[in-house]
Amino acid sequence: MENELVFFFDSYALIEIYEKNFNYKKYSKVKVITTYFQVYETYYSLIRNGYSDEEIKSFFDFLQNFCIDLNFCWIPKSVEFRRKYNKRDLSYADCLGYIIAKELGIKFLTGDKEFESLLNVEFVRK
To answer: In angstroms, what CA-CA distances link 7 with 47, 54, 121?
Structure first.
């Protein structure tokens, strides 16, 4: 579908989708791209927030459908991005996700306040 909206979902966005945040409802119809690193962060956060393995299993399995392979050249670019914004509390996974979104020409969907003022970000908060 040529006019299909595509977003890179970071772990913040994935968690909000899982928790059915109304502000993320409109993103349920877009094409999702993410990586196993974001899925890892999401799984960890949901477990830390008290959800059981059984509660999140189907969501976890579902997320595999949206994980893309990594391009080796994204690693140094994401490291440089993290160094450039070293005063912000950015995770390695989020820096990689931001660079992937930029490289693919799609928006980086997040509610992480550290990304709010950056270009190419679709910022949605609770």
So the answer is: 25, 28, 10
